[in-house]
Automatic annotation (TrEMBL):
Pfam families: UBD. PANTHER family: UBIQUITIN DOMAIN CONTAINING 1 PROTEIN-RELATED. It comes from Vitis vinifera (Grape). Residues 16-113 form the DC-UbP/UBTD2 N-terminal domain. Residues 1-11 have a biased composition (Polar residues). Residues 1-31 are annotated as: Disordered. This is DC-UbP/UBTD2 N-terminal domain-containing protein. InterPro entries: DC-UbP/UBTD2_N, DC-UbP/UBTD2_N_sf, UBTD1/2.
Length: 114
């Protein structure tokens, strides 16, 4: 039985808290519509890269949520976070999941649609 001050830990005894990704710049300025299209294409094809569809779904939900909810999503899905910005994660079976920066945050040179 845990106490109120206990926390869930991963295999190495620590929980990696997720954080906001570092700012990034796309080689060419993107509109919000173009960014959303790139994200949709990634998520549509992500399960074909390997791993479990349920984990990809959890990672998408986490990528689209605020940090507190994202942390709860990855914790409940059993996702092992290697990079605190969610760019590299693993599932409990050891499958690797790599997320590009464009699905996690907006570029610094984003052009707002008209």
């Amino acid at each position: 039985m845990g106490c109120a001050g206990s926390s869930q830990t991963k295999g190495d005894g620590t929980v990696k808290k997720i954080r906001k990704p570092k700012p990034w710049k796309n080689p060419q300025p993107l509109t919000k519509t173009q960014l959303m299209q790139m994200r949709d294409e990634f998520w549509d094809t992500a399960p074909h890269y390997g791993g479990q569809k349920e984990i990809w779904d959890a990672l998408r939900a986490a990528a689209e949520a605020d940090l507190t909810l994202a942390q709860a999503i990855v914790d409940s899905a059993g996702v092992i976070v290697q990079s605190a910005d969610l760019t590299i994660c693993y599932d409990e079976r050891g499958a690797k999941y790599e997320l590009p920066h464009y699905v996690l945050s907006e570029p610094t040179n984003l052009i707002r649609d008209g």
